[in-house]
Amino acid sequence: MHFVAIKSADQQAVLMLHRARDLLVRQRTMLINALRAHLAELGIVAARGPHKIRDLCTRLQEDHLDIPQVAQGALLSLIRQMNALEEEIVKLDRKIRDWHRTSEVSQRLATIPGVGVLTATALAATIADPAQFRSGRQFAAWLGLVPRQNSSGGKDRLGRITKMGDGYLRKLLVVGATAVLRRVVHAQTQTAEWIRRLLEKKPARLVSVALANKTARIVWAVMSKQEVYKTV
Fold first, then answer.
1. What does the alpha-carbon distance between residue 181 and residue 204 come to, in Å, rounded to a whole number?
2. How far apart are CA 212 and CA 191, in angstroms?
3. Where exactly are the structural domains of the chain?
4. At CB < 8 A and 24+ separation, what contacts does 45-52 make?
5. pLDDT tens across 114-156, in order?
6. Please, what sign has the CA dihedral across residues 113, 117, 119, 121?
């Protein structure tokens, strides 16, 4: 059994901000999906994504859509809830950024490609002591970012990632890695070359997970050595 150092009250408070934000984001997604489904029933198709539906919401609020008045009232109620959620998410984002400015660890982590303020603060608040992990690989395994090993007949077969550990941190690292993949086309670094070679043989989704694994190891090194990331 692997034990992690006890978090400070400050770290626990920041994680509460993250958990609250994550809940509100999921609730916003539910509202967006409901709006899209209801509009589709009326023959109005909205593009996917939280930003794409904004135009339709504006047209609905300005009464530019030809839909029954009763339906319009129901949809406007959902829009008001969605707007309220977005305002609360912005407030939580501001508090998270304020904490980031006070945390040296979080600021060092934010120098790593694919690690933004949200991921950096979540990592800094979750990992109280990186010395609890013997290596970056053990840290990546704790996050569930290493492949499952299936040994049989003296042969080692690697399966899908274990998905054990903190699912929230794992999700943030994978999302950050996916963003890096979109920008890596013309980059002239060793990491970019490594990513391009993988993309020639593997699907992008698998490569993003592999990059998230690599990022997790870098995170452990940056926290352990108390240094900023140096591009390679």
1. 8
2. 12
3. 8-102, 104-232
4. none
5. 999 999 999 999 998 898 898 999 999 888 887 754 444 444 4
6. positive
